[in-house]
Amino acid sequence: MARPNEQVGALLQEYADLVAITGGAPYRARVYEKAARSVAGHHLDVSTLDAAGLREIPNVGDSIAAKVVEYFRTGRIEEVERLRARIPAGVRELTQIPTLGPRKAMMLYDERGIASVQDLLDALDAGRLRGLKGFGPRTEENLRHGITLLRQAGGRVTLDVAMELAEEVVAALSALPQCERCTYAGSLRRMRETVGDLDILAASTKPRSLMKALTGLSLVSEVIAHGDTKTSVRTTAGMQVDLRVVPPESWGAALQYFTGSKAHNVRTREIAVRQDLKLSEYGLFTVPPAQRRHRRKATLTGEPASGEGPPAESTEPTEPAEESGPPEAGELVVSKSEQEVYARIGLPWIPPTLREDRGEIEAARDGTLPDVVTEQDIRGDLHTHTDLTDGVAPMTEMVAAAAERGYDYYAVTDHAPNLYMQRMTDEKMLAQREQLHALAKRYPHLTLLHGTELNIDPDGEVDWPADFLAGFDICVASVHSHFNQTRAQLTRRLVRACENPHVNVIGHPTARLIGHRQPIDVDLEAVYEACADTGTALEVNASPDRLDLNDEHLLAARRHGVKFAVDTDAHAVAHLDYLRYGVGTAQRGWLTAGDVINTWPLRRLRTFLRKGRKGREKP
Ligand code: DGT
Ligand code: CA
Ligand code: CA
Ligand code: ZN
Fold first, then answer.
1. Which of 152, 157, 187, 514 should be mutated for ligand 1, with most atoms under 8 A from CB?
2. What does DSSP assign to residue 256?
3. Which domains does the chain have, with CATH numbers?
4. Among residues 67, 358, 484, 611, which is most buried (max CB within 10 A)?
5. In terms of pTM, does the model score above 0.70?
6. In this structure, are residues 381 and 596 in contact, taking their beta carbons and an 8 Å threshold?
7. SS3 of 283, please?
8. Tell me: the pLDDT tens digits for 14-24?
């Protein structure tokens, strides 16, 4: 995604928040919010556009275009600065709490002097919100719950935020002549759904120049620790970045170590120890014969080996002290690649997304590791939007981008009428279908599917009757409202949607938004059963704010024989790239290409989409 677009998008969003907080007209805030989304999602790099070019972007008029030009000319937007100065940062932080809007945040500040999330929690505890208009017991409960959600996210960021930063740091370091290799490791490489800090690994014989380059980056706001092999910084956005530099011959072992997870590493170390090897971030070493008996005994009794420093086989290994060299040990065993490390301890290479000690060690040993789905396996996206509803790009651009990606097929699935804000009608939907069919002529290698994203209503019904639904190539159906029904109601609701012969995919099945909305309370086992029985796929929504189903759900669902669709739910061209996060999540759920319907050839997919209905065979 073009970085300038993101920057300007974030700034316009902040401006919208500031306008709302300071009591500006709500429509003005909405104008800036819409513009923020359009700019962030625009297919051209906005820093290359002049005012006229900027005005071509949907929702961008004269005044916003002027602000964007001002930003690229001066590095700031005067009016944003002016509003920023009027409000303490803590008040803006308050608006991060789900359910707390800008108007109420400002009221808390004006009436009670509350200027941070902690202030608010204290005020709630002390009962100091009593008597404040619009803050009844119900609101208080919602606020507490919102703060819990916010804290759970606890400084962790979503994958897209971490990835963008990682790619920037890796690119900067890789550009140095002293840098032989550089990549990101840690939870980001494992594609965990949120990332605590970034772990960047580099190979070089001249580590100092790399450390200096890191601390000199403009995105660094604070140097936390600065050394020859390890440096930690904090970015202006508050994220910690750890850089380790190792000699090139230790690359494989270091990458294995810093990719983790910790639980996986404990297991691989144990395996090494049993073979008289020592596996650490410094490499894979033979253990000198004199030390072996000692170490063996320690492993067996679980007691630490005495007198030889930290034992390699401890289940809680500690990070070596800053600047300490490799521990006294035997000879370095080749470890230029992870493959060599795993091979030497008798295992095949294990994909990073599986390294959570969730059975991958045993599977590797037994030769039953799953052949997990990859981005190259994906033949098309089956859940995407256009500007006919809440997308920001016209269909022509979305389709062009899909063709560019080399997809075999691509489904346009705009929202159906029951999501009232989107103002969908039968006529609009049918007109879109005509346009899509016309567009298809331009793309002989891409099959365009016309679909929709239906709303599953509180009773499990969807927007249109069967005869209208029959006109679509594919129907995704999702829960977009009434999240607080009982478990029994929600379960029944999803099961009924599966039983609809025209519903092919359940979109974002738990409806959670990472850090903002809890998953709905539903008996997923019952839903898995229903999906397997009816030939309905469950979505792995690749949007980094959703990742829904998540890895743990997938591990459970695949045992029921459910099929899945890994889709982006793209609302902009750039969102098509979110696919990687969906694939990462699918891998963490041990899914193979066979489990994922959008890796299948079109004919097989078409058969699946008919759900056993009789119908004309389409090409
Ligand atoms: P995060 O940052 O909370 O999202 O999660 P990770 O997995 O990136 O954890 P982090 O940054 O603390 O450490 C990066 C990797 O370094 C971790 O996945 C495995 C390795 N590592 C860190 N501390 C230890 C440790 O005490 N023992 C072992 N065996 N490995 C460790
Ligand atoms: Ca980390
Ligand atoms: Ca770290
Ligand atoms: Zn959608």
1. 187
2. H
3. 4-153 (1.10.150.110), 157-246 (3.30.460.10), 258-366 (3.30.210.10), 375-614 (3.20.20.140)
4. 67
5. yes
6. no
7. strand
8. 888 888 888 78
